[in-house]
Amino acid sequence: MFGIVSYGYYIPHSRIKIEDIASVWGKNSVDIIRSLGIKEKSVAAIDEDSLTMAYESSCMALKNSKAKIEDIKSVLFGSESPPYAVNPTSTTLAYFLGIERQYLASDMQFACKAATGGIIMANGLIASGATKNVLVVASDKATGRPHDALEYTAASGSVALLLGKTNLMVRIVDMTSYSSDTPDFWRREGIRYPSHGGRFTGKPSYFHHIFQASTTILKKNKMNPKDFAYAVFHMPNGKFPLVVGAMLGFTEKQILPSLVVTTLGNSYTASGLMGLVSVLEVAKPNDYIYFASYGSGAGSDAFIMQVTPQLKKIKKEFKLKMGNKKYIDYAHYLKSMEII
Amino acid sequence: MISPVKIWRRQKNVRSLLNKKGVVLSWTVIYAPPNDFKKCAPYSVLLVQLDDGEKLVGQYVETQQEEIKIGMRVRTILRKTRITNHEDVISYGIKFTNEL
Amino acid sequence: MISVVGYYSTQFGELWERSLFDLVKESIDGLLKETKIDKKEIDAIFFSNMMSGILENNLHGSSKIAQLLKTHIPVFRSEAACASGGMAVYLAIQYLKANPGKTVIVVGAEKMTDFAPEEAVEGLMAAASGEEQEAGLTFPGLYALLAQIYLSKYNYKHSHMGAISVKNHFHASLNEKAHFKKKVTLEQVLGSPKIAWPLGVLDCSPISDGASSIMLTSDNIKIKKAKHTCCILSSEIASDSISLTEREKLNSLISTVVAGNKAFRAAGIKRSDIRVAELHDCFSIAEILGMEDLGFWKKGEGGARALEYETMLGNSGDMVVNTSGGLKAAGHPVGATGIKQIGEVFLQLTGQAGKRQVQNVHYGLAQNVGGSGGTAVVTILGA
Lengths: 340, 100, 383
What we know:
heterotrimer, B: mainly beta, CATH 2.40.50.840, five-stranded antiparallel beta sheet, 1 helix, 5 strands, C: alpha/beta, Peroxisomal Thiolase, Chain A, domain 1, 2 domains, ten-stranded mixed beta sheet, two-stranded antiparallel ribbon, 15 helices, 39% helix, 18% strand
């Protein structure tokens, strides 16, 4: 058995509306909102970074579980915006959580799927007996280049998963990973903003990898889209998940409950996982949940999950916390992101 | 540049102050900051007495000054303290936000 | 008996053409010329300065002074943040007690305007704890925290503090050496740009350059020959925690209370005997706290009495405070302040205060505070 023992999340307080970004560049906000399927995105404060947000989501995950700190002998941190180019964040995070000395800390980067790869690796660590529990944390304070399309979507947030083999809230029935060398979105060392291949990020990238990973895992487990209560996909915008879902045979009804990108934006490594949290808040015991992440460069991690009765025990506050927000203008957004 | 050793030593104390609650004894808003805090200005600073009796100072992260009152309840959180030139080791420390 | 036989201050202000040690030399030369005493007759020098190390990477000031004066006499440096000057005078007095019949110069100086305000602000924060620095506090911020508690506890408003700035600017308009000689109104003080809520620019002492020196002696021949002289009745120092969070009280600076009690006891006089005083008004609230902590005003009544301008020249009050203009208007070159304060009391006791002269002065007091109250020096002088 392997799965999620508990989870935590953190959404920063501030939001900026898409129309407030569009108006600065003289663009038609109605068109942009329609084509991206996003109305507003979350913005971390100037004194927040992927570590401070990871600390918040991890605290929540630990608070929601009875697992002992000494049983967590591995901390895996995935981000596309770590505070340092060289210096692990997993160790700082572990330290503040009280995890010390005999444990494995690892920082991972793989664009938006940096953390989900960690879930697959955690399975191996737990199955080998190296540790009872693994803490996998996704966290990003993603910056888009001003005037670029990504400026409307790149957002901030964090999700932490405490994984184990007993007392599971969500059983991970199976997982798979599909990888290739595809340069759809990248950032060179020392360069501030990422670059991307425009429409190349669509069919050969996002859609191809998720499709391949999904068809493989579904076939292997002899399952069909209709067997699932919900389907959660990585959300670079509000449209792609619905399109790839349709390609695979999932319905809008299965996907919409996870589509938090509309009001939170794309928090990169935390994006899909934030959608998963949103779904876990409404899922019922024995519901099957389909989850597929996507990381540029490129790859997709696909998971078949099943909810257990234990999920009832966690306090369902996600919608409430999502609604706890305050709007800022473009200048304050630039200040928070240290662009000015 | 602050010594990385100093930051390392200080972190132990930071950890012990996380996830604590207390009450505001006094507050101010800084408009003329020292260099390392320029990018955050203006910001509020609180003098808080924790429920266990210990007193400490730290920034308050919600930005409306009208909201702060002596006697208000707050809790400690982890944030970057200094926003400095990009070569330094990052200094993380205690700040305050509203009690949940 | 230890007496002050001379005092000389440079102009306080933005003194672009003069370096820190140019100011030190100017002050010492001025003092020697005025007292007509040759440098050969000086037995030791006490030097007060806070930030030359932090801002200019210049320490070992004692040796620098030896170079300037071409001397081999001992030179001592003291630092206690803004109380460096008071501490230097205290140490000079102890030296004279241990070495009877000698003559010393106490000189304090600070060069702050060579640097951007943020650098000076940061340098000054070296007088506060690491935790206070890490919270992004500044000295205006620390005193603002004290002000908020005081105003809230005793039901006062900004105007109760602001009145102190109005008074001190009025006094400074009569002092040629003051940094700011312009009078200000209460409206201007309340409306000045905020530095650390509720303190505005006009509640805060400025960043200034300057040097002050006094000559102290226990040589009776020199005292007899001196044109002007007054004696040191007592000089006491008390310390307290550097962090505000470790203080026993937040509506009082206990270091001032302790030093003040010791000083009055040692001098054998009453509060009501004091006719002039130089108090440490680094921020308007500080003078109010000082008046209460020294026992001149009851705890909590300071705000009301300040707004009545009771301690202003020309009013019928028993005591006039900060005829020099205080730190607020005369300026606050940190290392020089404590010595300037004692110098001003000396001028009052010897009838040399010109347009600022208070009548019937027999006893005067100087209160010099370091940081947010970590050190306090109280000196009582008599005619």
